[in-house]
């Protein structure tokens, strides 16, 4: 994955998108009103901007146009969710026909607002059985309350990079698989300077570090955020307190939150040559599949490997799981060429060859069963680890909501307060968090 792309996806695009998607969309033109065999021009807006990414998507589009000579695709890259949403609200001839988003947390808004059309009629019409094409976790983050308004267009899986040289020097034969093993291994790999400050952390659980968003690490517990009626249940979910207790114990075992924060302050930007893992100040590190390519390009001066992030001791049988997210594609409600648009969406997200080609080109995880099993997929062992994580039935994405994942922002703020020691009564504070999430959800529905 190229650096620009992950910087785009990391922040949850909430405020502007919530305003832009409020209210109802104008009626969709539907799946039975245009003839996909007639000459047509489609406007395709996407977020990729790095040269290699743009080249890869353009090559797929060129192959699509060769298969569909009546369809001309005008592709525009480096387009943000906010820009797409503004265009869809305005409608008209300048609006796109096919759109993508790096922010799966916004899918609930896209579906509930009607800005992205329901794709189920198109799938049924063209014989696509989505449950046989896409893994369940990926389907879960592309639909909301029965509306399948998006399809997965490659995925991101998160695992644990580890410094093999540091492991060998410490006499550690394999990466940890459970949280108790993670704690013991992290302590063994932690190094201090003569003045007592941390020189290297075995594993830094701090929620403000790079990709360490708490929902990504919490996925290893397989939590449920909401009950059957849609009410927040983090206080009643026993795995929540176990998660925070485990993270606190891991922190304290390596010198405490303040010591780890002082070490983190010495790291450079995530995408720079001063990245904490690249410079050897982290022995183990949570990250996505794109990091391996970046380590190779940066010429890392140590041997490294990849493994799934450890799981709670009482869920050892789920080892191999991880957090999943990804790019999603959909059709604009205002498009007058929705059948032709579906042909493009289907080609990019359902057909095995273009999915595999794109995955290999930008080093992302394929998003269909057939592509995940394709012999043409990149055989790099590190990349294959992320393929296995994506295929693991216990891997998890956060559930969608109609307010752009505001509850994840609330959970992140809460988690940072807990790790900084500002939360004294964890269970009571979780009850208050549930109340806040429910209030935010009610407000978004009104």
Count of β-strands: 9
Gyration radius, rounded = 22 Å
CA(first)-CA(last) distance: 39 Å
Strand proportion: 5-15%
Please outline the major beta sheet.
9 strands, mixed
Helix content: 40-55%
Blueprint of the fold:
Blueprint: H1 3-9, H2 15-20, E1 40-45, H3 51-67, E2 71-76, H4 81-90, E3 98-101, H5 107-113, H6 120-126, H7 130-133, H8 136-140, E4 151-163, H9 164-169, H10 179-189, E5 191-192, E6 198-203, H11 214-218, H12 238-253, H13 257-264, E7 282-288, H14 290-298, E8 304-307, E9 324-331, H15 338-349, H16 352-362, H17 369-372, H18 381-391, H19 406-419, H20 426-445
Parallel strand pairs: 1-2, 1-3, 6-7
Antiparallel strand pairs: 3-9, 4-7, 4-8, 4-9, 5-6
Describe this structure in words.
The protein has about 450 residues and is α/β, with parallel strands linked by helices. The chain has 20 helices and 9 strands. Helix 3 packs antiparallel against helix 16 (about 350-360), helix 10 (about 180-190) packs parallel to helix 12 and helix 19 packs antiparallel against helix 20 (about 425-445). The longest helix is centred in the C-terminal third of the chain and has 20 residues, at about 425-445. The two termini are about 40 Å apart.
């Amino acid at each position: 994955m190229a650096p620009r792309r992950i910087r785009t996806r990391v922040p949850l695009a909430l405020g502007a998108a919530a305003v832009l998607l409020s209210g109802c969309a104008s009626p969709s033109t539907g799946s039975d009103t245009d003839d996909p065999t007639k000459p047509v021009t489609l406007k395709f807006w996407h977020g990729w901007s790095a040269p290699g990414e743009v080249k890869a998507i353009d090559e797929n589009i060129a192959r699509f146009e060769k298969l569909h000579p009546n369809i001309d695709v005008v592709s525009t890259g480096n387009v943000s969710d906010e820009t797409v949403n503004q265009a869809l609200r305005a409608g008209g001839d300048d609006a796109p026909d096919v759109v993508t988003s790096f922010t799966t947390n916004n899918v609930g808004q896209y579906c509930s607002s009607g800005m992205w059309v329901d794709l189920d009629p198109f799938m049924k019409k063209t014989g696509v059985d989505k449950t046989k094409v896409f893994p369940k976790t990926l389907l879960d983050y592309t639909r909301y309350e029965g509306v399948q308004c998006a399809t997965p267009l490659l995925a991101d899986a998160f695992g644990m990079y580890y410094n093999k040289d540091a492991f060998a020097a410490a006499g550690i034969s394999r990466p940890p698989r459970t949280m108790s093993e993670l704690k013991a291994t992290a302590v063994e790999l932690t190094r201090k300077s003569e003045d007592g400050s941390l020189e290297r952390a075995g594993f830094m659980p701090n929620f403000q570090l790079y990709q360490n968003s708490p929902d990504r690490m919490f996925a290893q517990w397989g939590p449920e955020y909401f009950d059957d009626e849609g009410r927040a249940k983090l206080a009643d979910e026993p795995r929540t307190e176990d998660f925070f207790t485990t993270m606190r114990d891991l922190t304290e075992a390596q010198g405490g939150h303040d010591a780890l924060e002082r070490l983190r302050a010495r790291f450079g930007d995530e995408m720079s040559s001063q990245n904490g893992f690249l410079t050897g100040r982290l022995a183990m590190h949570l990250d996505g599949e794109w990091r391996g390519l970046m380590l190779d390009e940066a010429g890392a001066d140590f041997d490294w490997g990849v493994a799934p992030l450890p799981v709670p001791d009482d869920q050892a049988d789920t080892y191999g799981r991880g957090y999943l997210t990804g790019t999603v594609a959909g059709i604009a409600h205002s498009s007058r060429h929705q059948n032709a648009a579906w042909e493009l969406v289907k080609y990019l997200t359902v057909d095995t060859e273009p999915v595999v080609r794109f995955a290999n080109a930008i080093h992302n995880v394929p998003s269909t069963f057939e592509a995940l099993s394709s012999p043409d997929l990149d055989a790099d062992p590190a990349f294959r680890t992320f393929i296995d994580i994506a295929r693991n039935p216990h891997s998890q994405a956060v559930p969608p909501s109609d307010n752009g994942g505001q509850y994840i922002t609330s959970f992140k703020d809460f988690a940072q307060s807990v790790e900084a020691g500002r939360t004294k009564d964890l269970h009571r504070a979780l009850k208050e968090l549930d109340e806040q999430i429910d209030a935010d959800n009610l407000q978004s529905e009104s």
